[in-house]
Amino acid sequence: MSSIFENDSPSNLTEYSVSELSGSIKRTVETAFDQVRVRGEISGYRGPHSSGHAYFALKDDRSRIDAVIWKGTFSKLKFRPEEGMEVIATGKVTTFPGSSKYQIVIETLEPAGAGALMALIEERKRRLGAEGLFDPARKRRLPFMPDVIGVITSPTGAVIRDILHRISDRFPVRVIVWPVKVQGEGSGEEVANAIRGFNGFDPAGQLPRPDVLIVARGGGSLEDLWSFNDEIVVRAAAESRIPLISAVGHETDWTLIDYAADVRAPTPTGAAEMAVPVKAELEAQIAGLTARLQGCVNRQMDHRRQSVRALMRALPSLDQLLALPRRRFDEAAAGLGRGLELNTLNKRRSFEKTAAHLRPDVLSNRFAERRRMLIERMTRVERTVERLLDRSRSRVGRADAVFLSLPARLMTQTARMRDHLANLSRHTDTAVRHQLTRARGELAAQDRVLQSLSYKNVLKRGYAVIRDDDNRPVSQAAMLSSGAGISIEFADGRVGAITTEGGEASPVARKRAAKPSEPGTPPKQGSLF
Length: 529
Description:
This protein is an alpha/beta fold. The chain is 51% helix and 16% strand.
């Protein structure tokens, strides 16, 4: 009796394997907590994994639970999770049998009330403001009349149409639109890249650099406008060298980009009104200024004309001005004859006095002295010319000696250059041969790699490639319908076939297979299905 009880099982409980027990717990947990809403604080968030999934934990003051957001769900979130943010997560609880852990798979994520988002915005605003990004001294004035306007917004919304229509009505200028997402995952990066992209334009390039930028989006909730609170967007707006207008949401909405921008517009339409003046008003203003200027000119001319007339009345008449000069002229004309006689008499007396001192011997001495000076100068000139001729002859002699030795020097230099050229030619031939050898080796190596990766080597081991009528590879039987024509590629060629259902050949296929092939026609293989 004792031996019998010793062999019996100590308990009548069902025995489970570890995998069975883990699977049962997993099904029980997923059934009991299929859809739950959990409120907690995000902990351990480091951004999405390289796979696109996000792993972190939700905690309160006493407990924590692991959480995961799959890649497809993460891309649909209205805002990006951040460390320390209090959120409400909706999803299902499941277990991970490999390590006996449980976690919540989040399907939707929302902030725990607008107060949490506002607190996050206020903290980010305080931190960025401490760096000086919102300093009024950094802001630039908008150009009065820009030539090119850059608009960063969604290309499909009503915002871009309102901006273009408003600019066209006020003052038509060239508008360059940079299309971006204005909501959802990745929208903040796209807006920041667009701002930096406009700033990177070459002023002399095919697309001119804008004179002013408009970042615009229509109205929405705080979550819808969350992308414009991203730190990367605020920093890009603050670093922009082009004056930037923020036109995000309606007049009551505000985001952090409004503080970093040079000007904040209440609406996208208001941004267009700030960017360009009204052409009709400018024309009316110019017309008014032109009329005022013309009136001033006319009044000034009338005033000057009256002044000239007053001065003319104060001037003496022409007869009064010429009376004294006429009298002096008459007196001078009356004494002119007597003056000519006295002048002639004085000239004659001076000539007679000078002629009394002239004698032939004095003239002969002067001529002799001038002749002697001329002879001396001619003698000096002849000696100078002889010295120049002797100097020129010596130079010509030296030049002849140089020209006589020139052919020998040229021949020596030519021979030296010919040897140098031959040496360079030999080195060039050697280098070309080495280069060709190395290129052939690289080409052979690449060909070996290509042959090793080619699918035709697999065909040689007995495999085949099936293609449909469009010559596209077929990887599954479900991709073909009954009676479809296919081609099968083997290592040595291709054959055609027709598909059937259930693996049996259709009567038509059997009839075609039984029919003898025409001379010269390659045999066709039957259906493989």
